[in-house]
Amino acid sequence: MDRTKESLKALVGIKRTNDTLDRIVKQDMVNYGLTITEFAVMELLFHKGDQPIQKVKERILIANSSTTYVIDQLTKKGYVNRRQDTKDKRVTYAVLTEAGHTLMNNIFPQHAEAIEAAFSVLDDEELTVLRKALKKISAYEKV
């Protein structure tokens, strides 16, 4: 096996798959008036609770200025508020509002079904192997 060639093919496959999954999520979110990044922020807050804005930026991998913009947009829509840390005034949290929780409670089950459908081409074992392989690659750091 030519590992270099296979690694490059795997990278192309991952990128194409990511593009496909992005399209699926974008199509799903358009129905709710959200962008994929807005949904990513809301999903993080929905599942992990209030988060420092810096942590939001790190978790969803967007630039500082973009994080501010996305949170501003979600605030205008009434889905997210900012809350200053009571102990450290330099830290501001993103907080899902009641309207944000209601929206996520309504849309997340359908979103999960759309993602499950996208992965339905894999049997259970293939899905587990894929998840574990991607986790290994994500943890890689060249020294």
Radius of gyration: 18 Å
Q: First CA to last CA: what distance?
A: 25 Å
How many beta-strand elements?
A: 3
How much of the residues is beta strand, in percent? 5-15%
- How would you sum up the global shape? globular
Number of helices: 6
Q: Give helix % range.
A: 55-70%
Question: What would the average pLDDT be, to the nearest integer?
Answer: 92
Task: Characterize the main sheet.
Answer: 3 strands, antiparallel
Q: What structural class should be given to the helix and strand makeup?
A: mainly alpha
Looking at the chains present, what oligomeric state does this protein adopt? single chain
Brief rundown of the structure:
With 143 residues, the protein is mainly alpha-helical. The protein has helices at 3-30, 36-48, 53-60, 64-76, 98-118, 124-139; strands spanning 51-52, 80-84, 92-96.
Describe the structure in your own words.
- It contains 6 helices and 3 strands, in the order ααβααββαα.
- The chain has helices spanning 3-30, 36-48, 53-60, 64-76, 98-118, 124-139, and strands at residues 51-52, 80-84, 92-96.
- With 143 residues, it is mainly alpha-helical.
- A 3-stranded antiparallel β-sheet has the order 1-3-2.
- 69% of the residues lie in helices and 8% in strands.
Features:
143 residues; mainly alpha; three-stranded antiparallel β-sheet
